[in-house]
């Protein structure tokens, strides 16, 4: 595999890859200049390259655990689910998150072979409600593990199949210039999740949700009754 453990070093150290990854660069907050500073600065147009996990500056998500390798980069396109069933039409109450449902498309080779073509892939996928021609590789959904509603990733299109029954460990607010979605509701946070202790996970143990587009909840339950969905897209970087 091309993917090596430099990811954990990158997560800690690198504000941008305009310079080689091992050279410190000036610690400016590039997010205010561009929503995708790392990608646009780091693209090599003609050669196979090692995918670099997008990180914000400053980065508040934890580094990857040692000894893990990148398994799959997936483009997720679907919905975040919320409910106001307990407080219908109440403007002083906030919707409650009750899960998500997304189709996952395999974009690993795109990041390896054609990073110049990636652009703002999640914004485009959300606007087109499509996987942009990439191969479906599985689904993201929530399911009960015991009494815990659990974020789950089933990459049944991968051989051997990969499965992650996860627990959310960290959240990081999306960059200010992230695409705010079809109704300008805002972009859901970037996340770091790890395998739970259910024993259900196979071949994967950690995932980052990055480059989110849309999906955030309305701030109140005004004019909201029952369950509703907000379309979103994100990149999921799976490690195992
Ligand atoms: C909430 O508001 C909608 C639209 O105004 C209305 O149809 C619905 O009956 C209301 N629900 C409740 C529980 O009051
Ligand atoms: C989320 O919404 C979708 C679409 O309505 C639905 O199929 C799914 O069951 C919902 N999932 C959860 C956990 O609410
Ligand atoms: C997810 O949404 C799709 C339609 O977008 C639907 O066919 C499917 O049943 C949903 N799955 C779950 C687990 O909610
Ligand atoms: C993202 O891509 C779309 C389609 O190419 C473009 O219209 C839009 O301006 C881009 N947005 C950002 C924030 O770069």
From TrEMBL:
Cited InterPro entries: DUF3455
Keyword Signal: yes
Record flagged with keyword Signal: yes
Range of residues in the leader sequence: 1-18
Family annotation (Pfam families): DUF3455 (PF11937)
Keyword list, A-Z: Signal
Superkingdom of this protein's organism: Eukaryota
PANTHER family reported in the protein's UniProt record: CONSERVED FUNGAL PROTEIN (AFU_ORTHOLOGUE AFUA_1G14230) (PTHR35567:SF1), MALATE DEHYDROGENASE (AFU_ORTHOLOGUE AFUA_2G13800) (PTHR35567)
Protein name: Malate dehydrogenase
Origin species: Viridothelium virens
């Amino acid at each position: 595999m091309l993917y090596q453990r430099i990811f954990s070093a990158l997560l800690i150290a690198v504000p941008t890859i305009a310079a080689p990854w091992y050279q410190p660069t000036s610690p400016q907050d590039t997010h205010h200049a561009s929503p995708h500073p790392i990608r646009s600065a780091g693209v090599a147009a003609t050669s196979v390259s090692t995918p670099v996990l997008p990180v914000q500056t400053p980065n508040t998500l934890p580094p990857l655990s040692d000894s893990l390798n990148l398994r799959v980069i997936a483009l997720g396109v679907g919905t975040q689910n919320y409910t106001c069933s307990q407080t219908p039409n109440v403007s002083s109450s906030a919707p409650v998150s009750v899960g998500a449902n997304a189709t996952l498309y395999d974009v690993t080779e795109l990041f390896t072979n054609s990073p110049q073509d990636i652009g703002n892939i999640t914004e485009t996928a959300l606007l087109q409600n499509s996987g942009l021609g990439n191969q479906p590789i599985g689904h993201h959904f929530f399911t009960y593990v015991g009494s815990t509603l659990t974020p789950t990733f089933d990459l049944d299109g991968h051989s051997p199949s990969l499965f992650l029954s996860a627990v959310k460990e960290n959240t990081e607010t999306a960059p200010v210039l992230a695409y705010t979605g079809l109704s300008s509701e805002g972009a859901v946070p970037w996340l770091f999740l790890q395998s739970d202790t259910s024993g259900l996970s196979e071949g994967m143990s950690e995932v980052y949700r990055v480059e989110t587009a849309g999906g955030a909840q309305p701030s109140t339950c005004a004019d909201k009754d029952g369950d509703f969905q907000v379309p979103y897209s994100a990149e999921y970087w799976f490690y195992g």
